[in-house]
Prior knowledge:
Layout: H1 2-22, H2 30-34, H3 42-53, H4 56-69, H5 75-98, H6 103-110, H7 113-146, H8 149-153, H9 157-210, H10 215-225, H11 248-258, H12 261-268, H13 273-289, H14 291-294, H15 296-304, H16 315-323, H17 329-364, H18 370-391, H19 402-409, H20 411-426, H21 432-458, H22 466-487, H23 510-527
Helix pairs in contact: 1-9, 1-17, 3-9, 3-12, 3-13, 3-17, 4-15, 5-11, 5-13, 5-23, 6-7, 7-9, 7-17, 7-18, 7-21, 9-10, 9-15, 9-16, 9-17, 9-18, 11-20, 11-22, 12-17, 13-23, 15-16, 17-18, 20-21, 20-22, 21-22
Amino acid sequence: MIGILSFVGFTVLVAVISYYATRKTNEHTSDGYFLGGRSLTATVIAGSLLLTNLSTEQIVGLNGSAYKEGILVMAWETLAAIAMVVTAVFLLPRYLKGGITTVPTFLERRYDTTTKALTSGLFLTGYAVILLPTVLYSGSLAISTMFDIPDVLGVSENTALWICVWFIGITGSIYAIFGGLKAVAVSDTINAVGLLIGGLMIPVFGLWAIGDGSLLDGITLLMKSNPEKFNALGGEKSSIPFHTIFTGMMLVQLFYWGTNQAIIQRALGAKNLIEGQKGLLLGSFIKILGPLIVVLPGIIAFQMFNGTLENPDQAYPMLVNKVLPASLVGFFAAVLFGAILSSFNSALNSSVTLFGVDLYKEYFKKDATEKQIVKAGKTFGIVLALIAMFIAPMLVYASDGLFGYLQEANGIYSIPILTIIVIGYVTKKVPAIAAKIAIISGSILYIISQFILKPYVFGEENYPHFLDVMAILFALNIIIMLIIGKLYPRKTVYIQAFTKEVDITPWKYTKSVGMAICIIVITTYFYFS
C-alpha cells in the first residue's frame, strides 16, 4: 500500500508542477505549442533530453546486455556525449540561425518541399510503427510486473497488459497533445532528478549488498571477481565489436542526438543559443555518468546471482527486487513510469509537430492559421496515440527477437536522413534530386541488405555487423549525392536564411567544455581497456 501511495503521490506532484509551469504559455501558436514558446532553459533541456532518451527498454535491456557482456555496452551511453558535443558546436547554431521548428523545415529550404515531405513521412512511420508501440509495450510489462497487476486486479496477464498500455498511453497523450512541448519538458526535468536519484540507488544498494555493508568492499569484490566484465573493448563476436565504434556507432549517435526530431526539438525550443548549448553539454556530461544506471547494475547482478540467470533481461528487475527496501519501491516505480512516459510523449509530441508544421500546412491547408495548425496537429496526435495503444498489446504475440529487430529497423530511415542533412550543410550546390535519390536508395538498399541478403542469402554468421552496413551505405549515399551535385548542380548557390527568432550568440565556453567532455570519454575507454 505504501508503494502504491508513493507512486501515485510522486506522479500527481509532477503533473501539478507541470501544469503551473505551463499555464501562461501561449499554446495557440506553433512556437508556443511545438517549441514551448522558445523559452526552455539549459536545465530543462538537459533534463528533458535525459528522460526522452531513457526508457524501460534501455534501462532493462542495457543492464541485461551488461550482465551478459560487461561494460563494453557502455558505448551506447558514453559515445552519445561526443555526438551531443558535435550537435552543440556545429548543428544547433545553424538550426537556431534558421529559426526552424522541425528538421525537415531546413530540408525544405535547402532542397525542396518533396524532400521535406519524404523525410517527415519517414520520421512519422518510424515513430508510429516502431517507437510508440514498443515503448508502450515494454513500459507496460515493467509496470505490470513491478506492481503485480494481474494479482492485484484479479485479471489475466494479457488483460493487465491492456490496462497498463492504455493507462500509460492516455497519461502520455495528455502531456504531449494538450500540454505541448513545455509540459513535456518540465515533467521530464522533474522526473530526470528522480531518475538520477532512483537509478543511482540501485547500484549503491547492490554494491552494499555484495560488500556485506561496505560500498568500497563491494566495488573491490566486483572488479576482482569479474575482471573480464570491465573490458570496454568488444571482440568481433560481441554485440559491439570495437571497430564499429568508428563506423556505424558514431553515425547512429549523430543521427539520434543531432537530427532526430524527438530529441533535437528540446534544443530547438531554447530561449537562446547559449541556453541550448549549455543544455546539450550538461546533458552530455550526464550521459557519461549513464553507465552507473544502465550498465553497472547488470554487472552487480551477475556477481549477486553467480551468472545463473537464463534470461539476462531478468537481471535488472531481479536486482531491484533483491536490494531495494520495500518503502522505496513506489518511488522507484514512479520514476520508472516517468521514464516510460517521457519516451512516449516526446515521440508523440514530435509526431504532432511534424504533421502540423510539415504536412498539414503544406498539403492539406496552405492558408491555415497558427491556431488551425496546432488543432490539426492535436487531432493527428490523438489518432496516432490510439493506433499505438491498439498495436502495443499485440506485440505480446510477436517473436522473442522483436525488440532487436525493431532497433535494427531504425536504420531504414536514420542513415538516409543523416546523409542529406550533412550534405545539406557542408555543400551549397548539391540539388534536390540528389536528396530524393539518397533517401529512397538508402532506405531500399538497407532493407535489401538486412532483411533479404542477411537472413536468406548469406546468413547471420557470415554477414557484416549492422553498424558496419550503416557506415558503408552512409559513405555510398554521400558519394552518390556528390556525383549528382557535380553533374547537375543547383542553378543558384544555397545561402542559409537568417532569422531573429532567438539570440544566437554562442556560449563562450562551448568548445572548451566540449573538448573536456570528449577527453573524459576517451580517457574512460583507456582506463577500461
